């Protein structure tokens, strides 16, 4: 498995539920800037929890995956949208782009290097640029419902120091947990 990192600069999640809808969901004033900001923060926290629980990107963003050589690799996602480029480094040289004819990739995140890649000698590092996660319009309904459950629970129990995640949210997220390979 390659080590995955967000491309820089790291930007916060684009909320999967807009501020006004989140305010309506937790029954607060949608016209209040402070309340709307709090609702958006709750949505972003719920999205972060969902990604952390599933151990993979769920909300579309761009990533780099780093590895040591051209060997079959698995990107850290079950929903890879695109692999935009693969670069390699030899010794202390600059990054060089690998031709697209030297590898194949699948939406499951599997990358298979072809003989053209293996013929390159002295490779010390590879970098895969890819986009993973669901675009807002493609977000599965159960993930959206988990975000709603979490923001409702966290808002209702905001004074409680022991903010537990509802078991329903964990149950709904089980099918999205990245298996340990």
TrEMBL record:
CDD domains: gp6. This is Phage gp6-like head-tail connector protein. It comes from Spirosoma endbachense.
